[in-house]
Amino acid sequence: MTLDPLLSPARFEWGCATSAFQIEGASTVDGKVPSIWDSFCAQPGRILDASDGSVACDHYHRLAEDVQLIANLGFKHYRFSIAWTRITRQDNSLNPAGLDFYKRLLDALEKHQITPNATLFHWDLPAHLEGGWLNRDTAYRFAEYADLVARHLGDRLPRVATLNEPWCSAFLGHDLGVFAPGVQDRAQSLVAAHHLMLAHGLGLQAWRAVRTDTSLGIVLNPELSDPASSRPEDVQAARLAELERNDCFLNPLFGREWPQELLQQIDALNATRKEGDLAICAQPMDFMGLNYYTRTIAQAPAGGRDVERGYAFVTPTAPKPLTDIGWEIYPEGLTRVVQNLLHQWPLPALWITENGAADNTGVTDGAVNDTMRCDYLQTHLEQVAGLIRNGADIRGYYVWSLLDNFEWAQGYSQRFGIVHVDFQTQKRTPKRSALMLQRLLQA
Ligand code: GCO
């Protein structure tokens, strides 16, 4: 593979991404308090392989080695998340020992001249916050946490995102119930979505009250949903899926009311919304991160809880090309989804903050020949270059993920890393995809 000149590291930001709960482990160390993911993993039947994040990649104890690895692979940028559960204690006051971990991480990155790109919330909500995202107070607690990070680490963080993929926290967590906290209630998921966006806005306000030199934004996973057929019912289903995933989050960011179709579903929301919330959500943003993996195919609901949602997803099957987690490989979707968004909302500068594939190829003779992931990355990078060529303001690309890690409800059964992790020995082995990127970045 050769690199399109538009993506040359001289002018375009290249990075790799991780998140705290998925790699750190050390879940009870140095005063860390439990998150909703710690409690969720402890419930039987929640995680496919009955695993948890207590050890994960043991990154907490191996950060020097892991940052060295990032440097060896040639990345100059690293996206990670800060665990709220390490920064604050049960009484929401600062936990200096947890803070120290991120200081050590930032020291190591600085030593290798790798620029940090931090996310404040990647799903690991402190378990002691009563009601979690269903409680409006949690949005105010988030602003206090943002204030603490701004005060204690802000001078070393040039770019900060408030939330990662709030759709997942709201809908996978409170409607489908497959993510923590595992609630299955449509109305509650909309309440959670509102509180998440409120937290985003309050968080930005809190940060800016401390510092004005940080580039601030949010990371979303916008949806491209195609109808299963041209039947009007299926077309409408695909539309509703996109409204829930996109408009529900993008509208508040730009001060627009939620789409009517969603508002009709929820009296519960009216009970928690206050005059002025929309203005809080719509704080100016310096950037937006977009995560893209696949598209979905939607059809009219046949029954059950899909009726409340107004859509059902069709599971993709062969001969469609699929990654090992069963997601369709559809590179054109990246172009289509970005163009759709640019058409509808006045987006700030964009970064692709996650893109990657589950390719579970193992180690053979000391090497991991993950050719499917190599092709996946290559074809998606071509789309990124095409978008830029056609005028999209995309400033960087972060591959998901640096390491094989705890893949949420799938446990350790799905491997997204460009570096293989042997979870028995914690040995790291760069895969063919990592070596491919290393070559490109050095060329
Ligand atoms: C995400 C998630 C990652 C997942 C990845 C693969 O932001 O979607 O950040 O945590 O591991 O998406 O499912």
- Tally of DSSP helical segments: 16
Radius of gyration equals 21 Å
User: Quaternary state, please?
Assistant: single chain
Shape: globular
Share of β-strand residues: 5-15%
Order of helices and strands: EHHHEHHEHEHHEEHHHHEEHEHEHEEEH
| Category by helix and strand content | alpha/beta
Q: How many beta strands in the DSSP annotation? A: 13
CATH fold-type name: TIM Barrel
CATH homologous superfamily identity: Glycosidases
Bound ligands: D-gluconic acid
How far from one another are the termini? Answer: 11 Å
In the sheet with the most strands, the strands line up as 1-2-3-4-5-7-10-11
Helix share bin: 25-40%
**Proper CATH architecture:** Alpha-Beta Barrel
Q: Low-confidence parts lasting 5 or more residues at pLDDT below 50?
A: none
- Number of self-contained structural domains: 1
Question: Major beta sheet, specifics?
Answer: 8 strands, parallel, barrel
Write the layout of secondary structure elements.
Layout lengths: L12 E5 L2 H4 L12 H7 L20 H11 L3 E5 L2 H4 L8 H16 L3 E7 L15 H17 L5 E6 L1 H9 L11 H25 L4 E6 L4 E3 L4 H22 L6 H4 L3 H6 L4 H5 L5 E5 L4 E4 L6 H4 L2 E3 L17 H13 L4 E6 L16 H19 L4 E7 L18 E4 L4 E4 L1 H11 L1
Parallel strand pairs: 1-2, 1-11, 2-3, 3-4, 4-5, 5-7, 6-8, 7-10, 10-11
Antiparallel strand pairs: 8-9, 12-13
Helix pairs in contact: 3-5, 6-8, 7-8, 8-9, 14-15
This protein binds D-gluconic acid.
Question: In brief, what are we looking at here?
Answer:
By secondary structure, the chain is α/β, with parallel strands linked by helices.
Q: Could you describe the 3D structure shown?
A:
The N and C termini lie close together (11 Å). The radius of gyration is 21 Å and the shape is globular. The relative contact order is 0.14. The longest helix has 25 residues. The strands form three sheets. An eight-stranded parallel beta barrel has the order 1-2-3-4-5-7-10-11. Strands 6-8-9 form a three-stranded mixed sheet. A two-stranded antiparallel ribbon has the order 12-13. The chain contains 16 helices and 13 strands. Helix 6 links the parallel strand 3 and strand 4. Helix 3 packs parallel to helix 5, helix 6 packs parallel to helix 8 and helix 7 runs antiparallel to helix 8. It has one domain: Alpha-Beta Barrel (TIM Barrel), CATH 3.20.20.
